[in-house]
Design a protein that fits this description.
The protein is mainly α. The protein contains 14 helices and 2 strands; from the N terminus they run αααααββααααααααα. The chain has helices at 11-35, 39-81, 117-131, 137-155, 159-196, 212-231, 241-257, 261-269, 272-277, 283-301, 310-330, 342-357, 362-377, 388-409; strands at 203-205, 208-210.
Length: 410
């Protein structure tokens, strides 16, 4: 199949805006200081400004002519190759059976979810919903299509259709979770680089100020930005982390509706890297992740019927608590507009206590409660979740067990 080609992005405007212009501005600031003391630098500055203005005047006409030639070439190529009636080739459309590129459609168990037309239709709807921004007027339309399709599958009361919903939703949840983790890690790295980069490193020599270090850093920063913008795929729109977290909550609700809450809980429990990065995430993102975590903690309490092996269920619950309890202790849950109400906070504390007590093994409870105590004590800005009554109950049970074992040995 032949893929529809996208128009190439011109590199010249990108380089001009992100590299040459900042470089010229910072260099000009340096030359201003020197031109007040040395006439030669005044002449050099005047020459550079004149040449740069001439360059700005000439380059637009060159870019427009290049773009026109490129567009004409692409148009002729598409007309000859894609829509040739004799060659029986058509533009590639994702999610059509036999179109290839099905690796992104694999479910959590590794099997494909495009076994039926209805499954492929739902997969395509969720993939489009993942790609388009919330600001698009088509976002709610596509979302309503997906909800209608899933609701009708459940209303039929046919078990294979319920499994179609569960399988497709599980794959979509996994995809969005990976995207959110990548976005959060990239944002954290960007914040670290932004904080460690010191602007205005100026060295004083002979009465003049040389911003060479600053110029070099600016060129490096904007050069990396321009390179990533030029080389990354243009077929996907960038989605915000807040949008992905809200999408994950919606997918989790749909998984619960089709009786597959364990899929969302298990994947969320395994997202320990995201939980770690979320500690330094922006407040709005933390609020969204708190809502999602609270929802999945509540679902984890009622889990059990989907697992034949209770030992495996305890491992999932332990992993969920160990991954996300530190985040709940340290996350910003809002002051002016709280993420959770007082009753919701109290309800979640009760749910967390039930989860901890369901672990049965004393060592598992000890790991979870000691982790909670560490983060709860070292976070002065928050008193939630307060699990002291469950910590005290565990201490009492451990003390009684120790006494009982001592008496039995005698």
């Amino acid at each position: 199949m032949v893929e529809a080609q996208t128009a190439p992005t011109p590199l010249a405007p990108l380089l001009l805006r992100n590299i040459l212009l900042p470089l010229f501005i910072y260099s000009d600031k340096t030359l201003i200081n020197l031109s007040h003391k040395f006439k030669l630098f005044h002449i050099i500055r005047y020459t550079l400004i004149t040449a740069f203005l001439f360059f700005l005047k000439v380059i637009p006409s060159f870019i427009s002519s290049s773009l026109q030639h490129s567009q004409n070439h692409n148009h002729n190529h598409n007309s000859d190759s894609e829509f040739d009636s004799d060659s029986s080739t058509y533009p590639w459309v994702p999610f059509l059976k036999g179109s290839g590129n099905c690796n992104d459609l694999a479910g959590a168990d590794g099997s494909l979810v495009d076994e039926t037309c209805i499954a492929r239709a739902l997969t395509q709807l969720l993939a489009i919903l993942n790609e388009i921004p919330v600001s698009s007027r088509k976002y709610e339309i596509v979302r309503s299509y997906a909800e209608k399709l899933m609701d009708e599958n459940l209303e039929e009361g046919y078990e294979p259709l319920r499994k179609v919903n569960a399988k497709v939703l599980s794959a979509a949840f996994s995809r969005a979770l990976q995207q959110l983790q990548s976005a959060a890690v990239a944002a954290a790295k960007y914040d670290i680089e932004k904080n460690t980069t010191t602007g205005g490193d100026v060295t004083r020599k002979g009465g003049g100020y040389f911003g060479l270090n600053r110029v070099i850093k600016t060129v490096g920063h904007y050069g990396d930005f321009a390179w990533t913008q030029f080389t990354k795929p243009k077929t996907r729109l960038r989605v915000s982390a807040e949008k992905l977290s809200a999408e994950l909550l919606w997918l989790a609700e749909k998984l619960v509706a089709c009786g597959s809450a364990d899929e969302a809980v298990q994947q969320w429990a395994s997202a320990s890297k995201l939980a770690c990065v979320a500690l330094s995430a922006p407040q709005r993102l933390q609020g969204s992740l708190v809502k999602l975590s609270v929802y999945l903690f509540k679902e984890a309490v009622s889990m059990g019927g989907q697992y034949d092996d209770m030992e495996e269920l305890r491992k999932v619950k332990t992993k969920l608590l160990m991954s996300w309890l530190p985040f709940l202790c340290r996350a910003t849950i809002g002051v002016e507009a709280p993420v959770l109400t007082f009753n919701e906070k109290a309800e979640l504390e009760n749910m967390l206590g039930k989860l901890i007590e369901s672990l049965k093994h004393e060592e598992e409870q000890e790991k979870v409660l000691s982790l909670w105590l560490h983060h709860y004590a070292h976070c002065p800005s928050s008193d939630w979740p307060n699990l002291y009554q469950y910590y005290d109950r565990w201490c009492t049970a451990s003390r009684n067990l120790f006494i009982l074992q001592g008496k039995q040995e005698k």
